[in-house]
Each structure stands twice: as structure tokens, then as C-alpha cells.
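Hey all, quick one. A colleague (J.T.) asked me to put the coenzyme A job into the tracker so the inputs and the C-alpha cells live in one place instead of scattered across chat threads. No bug as far as I know, just bookkeeping. Sequence used:
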Amino acid sequence: MADAHVILCGDTSAMVIARIALDEAEILTLATDPDLRRQGLARTVLQSCEDRLRARHVQSVFLEVAADNMAAQALYKGFGYSLVGERPNYYRRNDGTAVAALVLRKALVVI
Ligand SMILES: CC(C)(COP(=O)(O)OP(=O)(O)OC[C@H]1O[C@@H](n2cnc3c(N)ncnc32)[C@H](O)[C@@H]1OP(=O)(O)O)[C@@H](O)C(=O)NCCC(=O)NCCS
């Protein structure tokens, strides 16, 4: 977190961490406290994160999401992220099964 290219938005209720590389950024993690879900907290922190990325002149945001993570996919779809790639067998579950990662991208409109 001491890296100036890494930003954290949110708090212990919900948070997102992103890393900036020139005019691109990658969302490294996004999570809401399990007791506080479906209250709009992820939407709020993701919006805040995108606003900060725009202020840093980021034009594209990338992220990876598990192919079976329908909650996160719905969130990202609502934000305008679209599918640009897939990494087969990317996540390894505790039961030994593997799940693909979907690579999503969003172009940030700089106002
Ligand atoms: C995905 C996650 C961050 C969503 O957090 P949240 O604070 O509950 O999300 P919000 O309340 O802001 O929901 C925003 C939108 O996301 C979608 N969404 C969130 N949870 C959903 C669910 N369980 N099922 C379907 N859609 C869901 C909906 O479109 C929702 O809008 P709506 O409530 O108007 O329908 C949360 O479920 C989580 O922490 N999951 C575990 C970690 C994770 O999967 N992180 C993403 C890694 S890529």
C-alpha cells in the first residue's frame, strides 16, 4: 500500500484496491463485509475508485472475475465492464476444481 501507484477506496465495510500502470489500471480486489452485502456498498466504493482513477488520467480499467461469480459479474456489468478475454483454469477451489477467470475491461470517460 506504500506504492504510490496503488489506491485503496473504502474501509472495513467494503473496499477496492487498484493498481495504476501509466494510463491503465487493474482492480486487484473488491469485497464487501458478508454481513453488509446488497446495500450498495460495493457500488459506492467502485464508483469512488473509478473517480480517483480518472483523476489520475487512467483511461482503461481491467479486472479478473471468476466465471462462477455471478454477483460480482452483475456488479461489473452494471458499471459497463465488458468481456475481453478468458483465462481457463485460473482459480483453484478448495475441492480441487478449477474455474476460469473472465477478463473484463472498461474505458473510463475523462470529463
Ligand atoms: C461482489 C460483492 C463485492 C458485491 O458487494 P455488495 O456490496 O453486496 O454489492 P452492492 O450492494 O453494491 O450491489 C451492486 C450490484 O451488484 C450486483 N450484485 C451484488 N450482489 C449480488 C448477488 N448476490 N447476486 C446478484 N447480483 C448481485 C447487483 O447488480 C447489485 O445491484 P442491485 O442491488 O441494485 O441489484 C460481494 O458480494 C463480495 O464481497 N463478494 C465476495 C468477494 C468477491 O467476489 N469480489 C469480487 C472479486 S472480482
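Adding what we noticed when we looked at it: Residues 85 and 96 are 23 Å apart (CA to CA). The first helix runs from residue 41 to 55.
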